[in-house]
Write a structure and sequence with these properties.
The strands form five sheets. Strands 9, 10, 12, 13 and 14 form a five-stranded antiparallel β-sheet that branches. Strands 4-5-6-7 form a four-stranded antiparallel β-sheet, with no helix packed on it. It is mainly β and 174 residues long. The protein has strands at 2-3, 15-19, 24-27, 44-45, 51-54, 63-66, 72-74, 83-84, 87-91, 94-98, 101-102, 109-116, 121-122, 128-134, 138-142, 145-149, 162-166. The chain starts with a strand and ends in an 8-residue tail after the last strand.
């Protein structure tokens, strides 16, 4: 399914899913609570099969879980001032929330937070910082390494680098 999108009032709370049997997309009657989602990381699927929506242009601190039955559960919020244009990736029992645009300064950030999917809280002991501030970039996990690649820095300046973090090392150094 695709959650939210666009800046129109109709798209922000929408959920559109693909049915492989009919080879068609369909719009659910169910909608995203609150202000919807736009300019957030992809909907991250967690162990239970639920999806997490994290941050957004209009709701920068949200962490919402959409359960398989269609019900919604609000988790602890991201710390103020929140974030948008960030990247997320899932590994084991945590979701990495990296970079993006700070909700207070409208500038790119290099902050990396770890959301524990079992306790539904941010694990501040693992917080780290990428070497470069990045927004609208890619992120992925391969083995014990988290990679951040591409993106922009406060506008049209493209970033053509990759940096990595060893997730098995407690130093949290990029």
């Amino acid at each position: 399914c695709i959650f939210g999108g666009g800046s129109s009032q109709k798209a922000l709370p929408s959920i559109e899913c693909y049915d492989s049997a009919s080879n068609k997309w369909y719009l659910l009657e169910d909608t995203i609570p609150g202000k919807g989602t736009f300019f957030s990381c992809e909907a991250v699927q967690i162990e239970s099969g639920s999806n997490l929506l994290i941050g957004s242009l209009f709701d920068k601190t949200q962490i919402r879980e959409r359960k398989i039955d269609g019900s919604w559960l609000a988790w602890d919020q991201l710390p103020q001032p929140g974030v948008r244009g960030h990247a997320c990736s899932k590994s084991q029992y945590f979701v990495v929330i990296a970079g993006g645009i700070s909700g207070s300064t409208n500038e790119a950030t290099n902050e990396v937070r770890f959301l524990n999917t079992l306790t539904k809280t941010i694990d501040d002991s693992k917080t780290s910082h990428m070497n470069m501030k990045r927004r609208t970039f890619g992120i992925g996990i391969n083995g014990d390494f988290l990679y951040a690649f591409g993106g922009t820095f406060n506008g049209a300046y493209g970033i053509m680098s990759i940096e990595k973090l060893n997730l098995s090392n407690s130093a949290n150094k990029w």
